[in-house]
Structure to design on (405 residues):
């Protein structure tokens, strides 16, 4: 028994009944908050990411356009999930185990499922929708995630690395490319866009969306990162 | 016990949310209004705007087919009412009908609408309207299909004698 635990035990045995009640209440509240985060907040966050990740707003009529996750994003999401397990963001053995109650196992599998689709849709949100750029972005994601499989990661470093990865893709797609192809852009932008199209024989063609699409993507990625941070905190708790 | 309740409720509510997301991606609504209409259809509370329907019908009877179709589309934004879809198909038929030739494009759109009406109707669709000569969706469909088909009868000069239904 560690000194800290021994001291706590001594404190509890000498504590007044009202202090014991306060401690019990604090423990109870903590368990309830953890349950709320695990069974409500995390699935809701990840499902919202899954909803918004494929949502675009049309440039002409401002209509919603729903892009289901392309096959490549599912492959990338599998690599991301493997990375989460390797990086210790998901404790697969403690989450799904034979000694756990079935409901707890089911809840954990549900979180993993929502995380998988959120990852696929977060990637969908930062990948160009078609053309050569779609495949270029996909290839760079694949390359990075595949390389990361063989690096040593811990949860915090993994999170930082993912923030940089998604942030870079977001800036490239929603700021750089969007401004290059914007119909209301200046002459320089239009000429640069036309040149890029001409040099690539039209393969760099990218669909135009309303600026709201960028805001939705930013919000989606923010939610995804918040979800991952909460997931990391949950894993630390379950380890303790 | 309370934690178990949180767990069960959380699973149920988030599963319902996931189903709603799948439904959104499957139906692909283009605006919040379409989301609301789609939800009404899914919940079984969807109703056609009767006032707009009647106004479209009066336009139809005055042979203003395009205006009538616009009004019917506004009356049935989810395109889920078989009777309205039948009338839309009929308006395509009447507008596309000609003594010399039929407008193929309008007839094709009419065929799509009548197929939609047939698919939506739980039983063979029949509309009791004295101003129409074709009262069932099956009759209208046959008429539209005949108009689209090409055969030697098309060069028959007596064709000009035929009547619009």
């Amino acid at each position: 028994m560690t000194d800290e635990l021994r001291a706590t035990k001594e404190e509890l045995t000498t504590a007044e009944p009202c202090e014991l009640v306060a401690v019990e209440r604090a423990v109870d509240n903590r368990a309830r908050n953890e349950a709320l985060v695990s069974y409500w907040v995390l699935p809701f966050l990840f499902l919202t990411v899954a909803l918004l990740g494929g949502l675009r707003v049309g440039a002409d009529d401002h209509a919603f356009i729903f892009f289901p996750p392309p096959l490549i994003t599912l492959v990338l999401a599998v690599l991301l999930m493997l990375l989460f397990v390797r990086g210790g963001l998901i404790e697969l053995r403690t989450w799904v185990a034979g000694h756990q109650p079935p409901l707890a196992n089911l809840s954990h599998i549900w979180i993993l499922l929502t995380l998988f689709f959120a990852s696929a849709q977060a990637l969908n949100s930062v990948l160009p929708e078609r053309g050569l750029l779609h495949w270029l972005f996909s290839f760079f994601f694949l390359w990075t995630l595949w390389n990361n499989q063989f690096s040593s990661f811990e949860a915090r470093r993994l999170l930082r690395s993912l923030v940089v990865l998604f942030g870079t893709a977001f800036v490239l797609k929603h700021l750089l490319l969007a401004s290059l192809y914007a119909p209301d852009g200046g002459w320089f932008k239009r000429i640069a866009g036309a040149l890029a199209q001409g040099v690539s024989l039209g393969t760099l063609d990218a669909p135009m969306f309303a600026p709201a699409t960028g805001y939705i993507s930013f919000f989606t990625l923010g939610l995804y990162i918040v979800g991952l941070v909460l997931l990391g905190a949950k894993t630390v708790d379950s380890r303790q | 016990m309370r934690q178990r309740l949180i767990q069960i409720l959380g699973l149920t509510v988030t599963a319902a949310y996931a189903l709603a997301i799948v439904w959104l991606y499957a139906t692909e609504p283009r605006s919040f209004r379409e989301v609301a209409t789609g939800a009404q259809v899914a919940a079984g509370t969807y109703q056609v705007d009767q006032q707009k329907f009647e106004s479209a019908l009066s336009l139809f009877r005055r042979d203003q087919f395009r205006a009538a179709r616009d009004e019917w589309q506004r009356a049935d934004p989810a395109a889920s009412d078989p009777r309205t879809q039948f009338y839309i198909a009929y308006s395509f038929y009447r507008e596309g009908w000609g003594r010399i030739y039929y407008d193929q494009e309008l007839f094709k759109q009419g065929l799509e609408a009548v197929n939609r009406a047939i698919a939506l109707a739980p039983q063979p669709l029949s509309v009791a309207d004295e101003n129409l000569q074709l009262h069932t969706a099956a009759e209208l469909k046959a008429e539209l299909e005949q108009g689209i088909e090409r055969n030697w009868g098309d060069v028959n000069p007596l064709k000009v004698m035929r009547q619009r239904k």
